[in-house]
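Need the bound structure for NDP, inputs here:
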Amino acid sequence: MSIAQEEIKKFEVNDCAQYDVFYQAMKEVICSISPLLESDEKYARYAILERLVVPDRIIKFKVTWVDDNNDIQVNTGIRVQFNNALGPYKGGLRFHPTVNEGVLKFLGFEQILKNALTGLPIGGAKGGSDFNPKGRSDFEIMKFCSAFMTKLHKYIGPRIDVPAGDIGVGAREIGYLFGEYKKITSSYDGVLTGKPYMFGGSFMRPEATGYGVVYFTQTMLEMENHESLEGKICTVSGAGNVALHAIEKLLEIGAIPVTCTDSQGTIYDSRGVDLCLLKELKLEKRVSLERYVEAHPEAKYIPVDEYPDGGHAVWDIECYAAFPCATQNELNELDAQNLITNGCISVSEGANMPSTPEAIDAFLSHKICFAPAKAANAGGVVVSEFEMSQNAGMTKWAFEKVDEKLKEIMQQIAKRVALTAKDYGVEGNYVDGANIAGFKRVADAMIAEGI
Ligand code: NDP
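Answer from helper R.:
Posting the output first, comments after.
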């Protein structure tokens, strides 16, 4: 049995289906880092894996709030503080009915290595609630956020744990959470990132993840001697914060993003998607993508229920580069085969773990340039760290400065990942490169800090 198999077996506890995504993420990392474990016994001696896969603590709390009908609602809130070897716990909050401990453990675990890859002083965490913001009024969102923060505030702080946004949590929610924290503590702390610009937010935080994934892809394509994205057809999934800003950057550099998706369907607009309209539908009106074709009848809307197994039509569309930016496991083996058959040469993950393990195997075996989430979507947390720095120094950086520094760090991550893969004999495998480089930085800090 190989080291990787032995390690995986140690941690495999089939206690509950909700932990599937966590085991999926953990197995990938263990397989990737096995050459490192084999070449340096200190990681086994210091039991780094055993210590890394167990969160420092999981805080679970009841969130009680009153809806617009004066009915009392009860949700669950969770914060997984996973590892702070490199800096304060850092990671987003997700409000979505599918949130449970397993999902947050998966996201928190990935966040440790992602944050390590940035080279910045931040640890890994994730949190959220099974609260469903869809269809809720602005007042209900505000009341829920206040109730959530009433319970969470004791466990966070600018040097302890600094949450940010994720699915269902944007600048509006962060604003309400921040307001409640300030009210309870009477302290104007940079305790959350992704705040609106007018009170402590950084320029470019909303754009950061989407722009970052494009910067990473540009560097990767250059290193792998492929043509640039300019003039090329790109497919993007999602229609939220990450997807919209990936589309924005793609349009800016002259690429042609032709798709986007939401949980109900796919838009295919062969002339390139209308970003202004998308922003209006998704950020202002918060309605279904179906409405896109009212303004653009020549575009196609393909609902999920017209597609086999509730999947999305987006990966059937011919493209040069694909950007899955919606959610985990949204791109399966069949989707990967379709992309490969249709001539796609590059897949960059804007969402966290959007490709299934089988899809990743297909990409790697066909030598597709594959940029894994923990490297490619690190732009969000990079600018979150910039926000922490600005808040600590009571300053505000210009948009251009943030953009320049973000670009520089995304390029550095891509180069570090490629070089690490080469050093460990898996040239071109950005999955292994990212896992080894991220793991090594956290593990070395854990060893240096003692048990
Ligand atoms: P948002 O809530 O802004 O948007 C999510 C989008 O994905 C929505 O349009 C949603 O559709 C759509 N979606 C959700 N589930 C599915 C599904 N099963 N199939 C297709 N579409 C779906 O979230 P973000 O854009 O912030 O996050 C997207 C991904 O990026 C997540 O994996 C997140 O963890 C990751 N990420 C986000 C970062 C950030 O800075 N925000 C940083 C790093 C990673 P609908 O509108 O119908 O709900």
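Comments: The chain is about 45% helix and 15% strand. The first helix runs from residue 3 to 11.
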